[in-house]
Amino acid sequence: MSEEPVIKRRNIIYPRIELRTGHLELILPNDADEKQILEKYAGWIDEKQQQIDKIERESQNLSLSPRTKEEYASLIKELAGKKTGRPVKIQMRKMKSKWASCSPNGTITVNTLGQNLPDNYVQYIISHEILHLTHRKHDALFLAALEKEFPDMAQLEKDLAGYWFRLNKEI
Predict the structure, then answer these.
(1) What value does the CA radius of gyration of the chain take, rounded to a whole number of Å?
(2) Please, what is the angle between helix 153-170 and helix 42-59, to 10°?
């Protein structure tokens, strides 16, 4: 393991291991033995860290497209309007673990980190969330519809993982 983990203790039953931003974070029950948890999951943690390191190296080749929050909001509203044919409520905020989300009432919340992504990635993210207006879960129908619109979906997802780790370190 390349760096010391961040340990957080909570009133929970089961431990959680997170590498969402490339840094190891252990969320442990108040009475858990952190050394025991680290030893038990050392192989898994090392494997995941190697995967993240590879993604981060490859992400250096991805181009960024910085824009202002106003430009980003305008692009999102334009893309969402084209997809739905009606106004969609859009919120922007810094999110810890995802690019965007769609609430049951149709509000799309987008991560402000996305304002640094090239347009085609923003389009993919918005299309993904708008699709949740008709398909709540990532089931076979959802994935088929998304892949029909974005045949390169697997590459987009891989690149977005790279952007995620890169932008969380740089911004």
Answers:
(1) 18
(2) 90
